[in-house]
C-alpha cells in the first residue's frame, strides 16, 4: 500500500514517479488520498502503477467532512469511476494509474507483458504504454505509442517508442540494438547500442562502444563515456570523458541537424511565399489604377488578389519569427557545453556548430568545455569550477551551410524571392 499525502508545497504529479501530489478537486476536504495498487519499480528513479479492470485504485480519507458526489466525480478522471461507498475510486479499464496536473486520477491504457519479449513471442505493437516484466531480447521488435517500461534489460532489439523509454537495467546492444524514443531515455548503462531520443538520455553507469543521438542532453551520472559517438544538442554531463588510449570517442554538441534541415526548408518556403505575394500584387496593380471604374466582378477579383497576398505576408512573417528563434537556439553556446566532474582523457574529438578540436592530453575535473569568441575568432575553451579559462584548445573552423543560411536570412538580410 502506498500513501501519497497532500502537501502544500508540491503540485500534482504522476504517482508512477513516486512523488507527493495534492488533490485540489477535493477543495481541502481530504487530508490524504490512499492509492491501493502496489507500484512496480523500474530502476532507481521510476515507478509505474498497473491496475486491472474493476480494481479499487484509491480511497479518500476525509477531515471531518463528507465527500459530495461532485467532489468525488471531480477527482475521477478518464478510466476511473466512483465506488458505491462514495469514498473509493475504482478502475473502469485496465492500464496505468496516473495523476494529472489538477489532481485527477486516471487510468491510461497500458499493455503488460509478463515475461521476456523475444522473436518467438512475436512483435509487440501497442498504441498506449507498455510494461515489460522482463527483458527485451535479441532481434525482438517492439513499437509503443506511449511510454515503455522494462524491468529487465534491452538487448540487440529494435524499439520504436513515441514517448519515454525507462529501463531498470541497461541497454546491451551487441552493436545491433536500435532504440528510438520521442521523449527521454533512462537506463543503468548503454553498451554497444544505438539510441535516439527526442529529449534527454540519462545513464547511471557507463556509455561504451555506443552511438547516442539526442535532442536534449546526455547525462551520465556516475560513469564514463568511452569509445562512443555522441550527438547531444543540449550538451553533455559525465564523470569521466574518454579513457587512456581511447582514440574513438567523438562528442558533438549543439548541432541540431533536424532543426537545421527544418530551418532551410522554412527559408525556401518564405522565398516562395514572398515571390507568390509579389506576383499577386503585380496582377492586382492594373486593377488598382482603375479601381474607381471597375465592375463589381473586377473589384472582387482585385480584393481577392490583395487578400491572398496579405495572407502570404503573414505566413512569411511567422516563418521569419520562427527562424529567429531557431537561430538563437542554434547559436546558444552556453547551452552547448560539455561538463566533466572527474577527468577528461586525451585523444578525444569534439565538434561544435562552428569549430572542431582534438583534446590531446588529460586533465582532472571539474572541467567545462564550451566555445567562446576570442579576438574575433570562435575558440574552444576549458573552464575550471570558478569559470576561469584554464586552456584554449587548438580549434579548426567547420563549414556549416545550414547555420550560414539561417544567419543570412535572419541577421544579414531577409530571404529574397527566387
Spell out the blueprint of helices and strands.
Layout: E1 2-5, E2 30-35, E3 40-41, E4 47-48, E5 50-51, E6 56-62, H1 69-75, E7 80-82, E8 88-91, E9 95-99, E10 105-108, E11 110-113, E12 124-126, E13 129-132, E14 141-144, E15 148-150, E16 158-161, E17 165-167, E18 171-181, E19 185-187, E20 190-197, E21 201-203, E22 207-208, E23 211-214, E24 218-220, E25 224-226, E26 229-232, E27 236-241, E28 250-253, H2 257-289, H3 296-330, E29 338-344, E30 348-351, E31 355-359, E32 363-364, E33 367-374, E34 377-383, E35 389-393, E36 395-397, H4 401-412
Parallel strand pairs: 11-13, 12-14, 13-15, 14-16, 15-17, 16-18, 17-19, 18-20, 19-21, 20-22, 20-23, 21-24, 22-25, 23-26, 24-27, 25-27, 26-28, 27-29, 28-30
Antiparallel strand pairs: 1-2, 2-6, 3-4, 5-9, 6-8, 7-8, 9-10, 29-32, 29-33, 30-31, 31-36, 33-34, 34-35
Helix pairs in contact: 2-3, 2-4, 3-4
Question: What Rg do the Cα atoms give?
Answer: 28 Å
Instruction: Catalogue the unreliable spans.
Output: 1-32, 414-418
Distance between the termini: 67 Å
Number of strands: 36
Quickly give the structural class. Answer: alpha/beta
Share of helical residues: 10-25%
Mean pLDDT: 81
Sheet-strand content, in percent, reads 35-45%
Largest sheet: 26 strands, mixed
> Globular, elongated, flat, extended or rod-shaped: what is the shape?
flat
Assembly state: single chain
Put simply, the count of helices is 4
What would you note in describing this structure?
With 418 residues, the protein is an alpha/beta fold. It contains four helices and 36 strands. The protein has a 26-stranded mixed sheet that branches. Strands 1-2-6-8-7 form a five-stranded antiparallel sheet, with helices on one face. A hairpin with a 2-residue loop joins strand 33 (367-374) and strand 34 (377-383). The chain is flat. The model is unreliable at 1-32 and 414-418 (pLDDT under 50).
Amino acid at each position: 500500500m502506498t500513501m501519497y499525502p497532500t502537501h502544500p508545497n508540491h503540485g500534482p504529479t504522476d504517482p508512477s514517479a513516486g512523488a507527493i501530489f495534492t488533490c485540489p478537486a477535493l477543495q481541502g476536504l481530504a487530508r490524504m488520498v490512499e492509492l491501493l495498487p502496489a507500484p512496480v519499480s523500474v530502476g532507481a528513479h521510476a515507478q509505474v502503477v498497473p491496475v486491472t479492470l474493476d480494481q479499487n485504485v484509491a480511497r479518500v480519507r476525509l477531515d471531518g467532512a463528507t465527500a459530495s458526489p461532485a467532489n468525488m466525480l471531480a477527482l475521477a478522471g478518464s478510466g476511473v469511476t466512483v465506488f458505491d461507498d462514495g469514498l473509493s475510486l475504482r478502475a473502469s479499464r485496465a492500464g496505468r494509474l496516473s495523476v494529472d496536473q489538477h489532481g485527477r486520477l486516471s487510468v491510461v491504457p497500458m499493455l503488460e507483458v509478463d515475461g521476456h519479449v523475444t522473436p518467438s513471442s512475436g512483435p509487440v505493437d501497442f498504441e498506449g504504454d507498455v510494461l515489460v516484466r522482463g527483458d527485451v531480447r535479441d532481434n525482438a521488435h517492439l513499437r509503443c505509442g506511449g511510454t515503455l517500461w522494462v524491468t529487465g534489460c534491452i538487448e540487440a532489439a529494435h524499439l520504436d517508442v513515441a514517448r519515454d523509454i525507462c529501463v531498470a537495467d541497461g541497454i546491451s546492444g551487441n552493436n545491433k540494438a536500435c532504440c528510438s524514443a520521442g521523449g527521454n531515455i533512462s537506463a543503468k548503462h548503454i553498451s554497444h547500442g544505438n539510441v535516439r531520443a527526442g529529449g534527454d538520455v540519462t545513464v547511471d553507469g557507463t556509455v561504451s562502444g555506443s552511438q547516442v543521438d539526442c535532442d536534449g542532453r546526455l547525462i551520465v551520472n556516475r560513469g564514463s563515456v568511452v569509445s562512443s559517438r555522441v550527438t547531444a544538442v543540449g550538451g553533455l554531463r559525465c564523470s569521466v570523458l574518454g579513457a587512456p588510449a581511447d582514440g574513438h570517442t567523438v562528442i558533438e554538441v549543439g548541432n541540431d541537424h533536424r532543426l537545421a534541415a527544418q530551418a532551410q526548408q522554412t527559408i525556401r518556403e518564405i522565398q516562395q511565399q514572398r515571390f507568390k505575394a509579389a506576383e499577386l500584387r503585380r496582377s492586382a496593380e492594373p486593377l488598382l489604377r482603375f479601381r474607381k471604374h471597375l465592375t463589381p466582378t473586377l473589384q472582387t477579383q482585385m480584393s481577392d488578389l490583395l487578400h491572398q497576398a496579405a495572407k502570404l505576408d503573414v505566413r512569411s512573417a511567422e516563418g521569419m519569427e520562427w527562424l529567429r528563434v531557431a537561430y538563437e537556439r542554434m547559436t546558444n553556446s552556453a547551452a552547448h557545453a560539455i561538463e566533466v566532474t572527474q577527468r577528461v582523457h586525451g585523444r578525444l574529438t569534439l565538434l561544435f556548430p562552428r569549430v572542431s578540436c582534438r583534446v590531446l592530453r588529460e586533465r582532472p575535473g571539474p572541467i567545462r568545455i564550451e566555445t567562446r569568441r576570442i579576438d574575433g575568432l570562435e575558440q574552444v575553451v576549458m573552464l575550471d569550477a570558478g569559470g576561469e579559462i584554464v586552456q584554449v584548445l587548438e580549434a579548426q573552423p567547420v563549414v556549416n551551410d545550414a547555420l550560414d543560411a539561417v544567419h543570412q536570412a535572419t541577421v544579414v538580410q531577409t530571404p529574397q524571392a527566387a
